Amino acid sequence: MSADPGPAPQPRWLDPDERRAWLKLAAVITLLPAALDSQLQRDADLTHTGYMVLAMLSESPGRRLRMSEVASRTNSSAPRVSHVVRKLEDRGWVRREADPADGRGQFAVLTDAGWEHIVATAPGHVEAVRRMVFDVLEREDVAALEELGAKLLTRLDPHSRFSATAG
Prior knowledge:
Layout: H1 16-44, H2 48-58, E1 64-66, H3 67-73, H4 78-90, E2 94-99, E3 102-110, H5 112-132, H6 139-156, H7 163-166
Antiparallel strand pairs: 1-3, 2-3
Helix pairs in contact: 1-5, 2-5, 3-4
C-alpha cells in the first residue's frame, strides 16, 4: 500500500504586477528577435544568429574560434551553430579548419569576404539595436537592464555555458 501523497501543490499564480511585467517581457522576447532578423535580412541577407557568428569571429584573435566557443559567444547550441556556419561557408564568409592540437575539434575562421561583409553590415545593425532598445532608455535603465539580464541568466544558464552569462 502506497502512502497518500496529499493534495497537489497549488500553482503560484502571478500577481497583477508580475503578470503585467511578464506580458511585456514576453512581447519583447517575441518582437525584438523578429525585428532584428528583419533588419538584417533586408540590409545584409543574414539572420541574427549569422550576424552574431560573423561578429564574434571578427572580434577574435586571428578572426577564428573553436566551434564550441562560437556556440558559447552566440548563446546558441552546437548543432545550431554548425548549421549557421555551414550556410556562411556556402557564401564564402566563413571556413572551417581542423584543430591541429585536437583532430576532433574544428575552428570557424572568418574569411576576408566575411570580414568585408560584417564591416559593411555592423553600422546599420548597431543603429537598429540603438533605435529599438537604447534610444528609449535612460542611463539608469541600461544599468538596470544589465542587472536584470544577469539575474535571469543565473537561472536560465546556471553553468555559465554561454558567454553572456559569464560577462
